[in-house]
Amino acid sequence: MATEPVNVSEFQELARLALPKMYYDYYSGGAEDQQTLRENVEAFRRITFWPRILIDVNRVDLSTSILGYNISAPIIVAPTGSHQLAHPQGEVATAKAAATCNTIMVLSFTSSCTIEEVATSCNAVRFYQLYIYKRRDIAATLVQRAEKNGFKAIILTADTPRLGRREADKKNKMIAPQLKNLEGLFSTKATSDGGSILEAYVNETMDPSLSWKDIEWLRSVTKLPILIKGVLTRADAVKAVQVGVDGIIVSNHGARQLDYSPATISVLEEVTVVHAVEGRVPVLMDGGIRRGTDVFKALALGAQAVLVGRPVIYGLAANKGEYGVRRVLEMLKDEFELTMALSGCSSVKDITRRHVRTEHERLLSMM
Ligand SMILES: Cc1cc2nc3c(=O)[nH]c(=O)nc-3n(C[C@H](O)[C@H](O)[C@H](O)COP(=O)(O)O)c2cc1C
Ligand SMILES: CCCCCCC(=O)C(=O)O
């Protein structure tokens, strides 16, 4: 592609050209038949707008706040692993872009750069994403390091008792992550029987017995707010509120875990995660956000903000580092701003359920 990308999706092809096949497949792939991977994007396309006219949109304010932190737009960097496979500056470049765009970065447990490197690189508001290994002391140590280094919340990813079946990774014999954070604490060596080494590593280390009662344990090792990532059902949303989490992330892990789980935008309201929660804690969502219109749709259906995974990596990988990530975030913000103006919303608070029509409503209207 000779010209500069004009939308977020165009970064994907640049990333494909820039990356070794093993890494590109790891970043872009989903589980098994990749049905949920396609659906995460397609489900947004089935939602249409009910725009309002003759409303003063001379000034459009995208800003919002999450857990009390003001951000320039409800678009946050999702936790994704191994950024140094995409660019030598890894998560430091990503964090700097998040800081420039005045948004939150969620640093992955599987980051290539350390908690300390990211913390000292810039002043982005940072949350820390946690996986819990069989060796619980690892989680406790990392949470405490994140807290000491100014991270503002813990995101517990709860959808990965084992790794999803990612067939490209099996064929490519995907390597295990280089987890610099674990140096001196825990080995990242693993052997596989000829398939994905990453998968073998995860299945050896992750604690599949993790359960709701462990939230209490996590509370006992940190004062930071705890958000649960991976909620897809009303029952789990209710449970999460009952056990006292400080926020919920509706996510299917970018379709990398259980194939044929629903597209996240389709359950955000439909499974009434939002209704179940009834405003008691913030509800965020991720999966398939590729346009500013997607951000608007997610907010109209009750999310307070969205997280963006692959597009950030593609921006990073297109040999552009911090600049590429910044461009991705800026493009999404620009498109979101235009969507607000064309829908008659001058602030995020003005976005309501009445601004969108779901597939379900369209079908009902035909009966
Ligand atoms: C390459 C890659 C690595 C990921 N690593 C993590 C991770 O370490 N922890 C986590 O909670 N989620 C991880 N995720 C899931 C993302 O946080 C997020 O849920 C997903 O990417 C959102 O979908 P999107 O890529 O369509 O935006 C990863 C996703 C990708 C694509
Ligand atoms: C402890 C290693 C976890 C690797 C999985 C990273 C991830 O969430 C993903 O690839 O998806």
TrEMBL record:
Among the GO molecular function terms of this UniProt record, one is: (S)-2-hydroxy-acid oxidase activity
Amino-acid positions noted as binding glyoxylate in the UniProt annotation, renumbered to this chain: Y26, Y131, R166, H253, R256
For the FMN hydroxy acid dehydrogenase domain, which residue ranges apply?
1-361
Q: Which UniProt keywords apply?
A: Flavoprotein, FMN, Oxidoreductase, Peroxisome
Q: What is its EC number?
A: 1.1.3.15
Cofactor(s) for this UniProt protein: FMN
Task: Report if keyword Phosphoprotein is assigned.
Answer: no
Predominantly, its location class is other
- InterPro entries the record matches: Aldolase_TIM, Alpha-hydoxy_acid_DH_FMN, FMN-dep_DH, FMN_HAD, FMN_hydac_DH_AS
The residues that hold FMN are 79-81, 108, 129, 157, 229, 251, 286-290, 309-310
Enzyme active site: H253
Where in the cell does this protein reside?
Answer: Peroxisome
Top-level taxon of origin = Eukaryota
A GO cellular component annotation here is:
peroxisome
Q: Which SUPFAM superfamilies match?
A: FMN-linked oxidoreductases (SSF51395)
Q: Does the keyword Oxidoreductase apply?
A: yes
Broad EC category:
oxidoreductase
- Catalyzes what? 2-hydroxyhexanoate + O2 = 2-oxohexanoate + H2O2; 2-hydroxyoctanoate + O2 = 2-oxooctanoate + H2O2; a (2S)-2-hydroxycarboxylate + O2 = a 2-oxocarboxylate + H2O2
Please report which protein family the annotation says this sequence is part of. Answer: Belongs to the FMN-dependent alpha-hydroxy acid dehydrogenase family.
Q: What is this protein called?
A: (S)-2-hydroxy-acid oxidase
Which species is the source of this protein? Acer saccharum (Sugar maple)
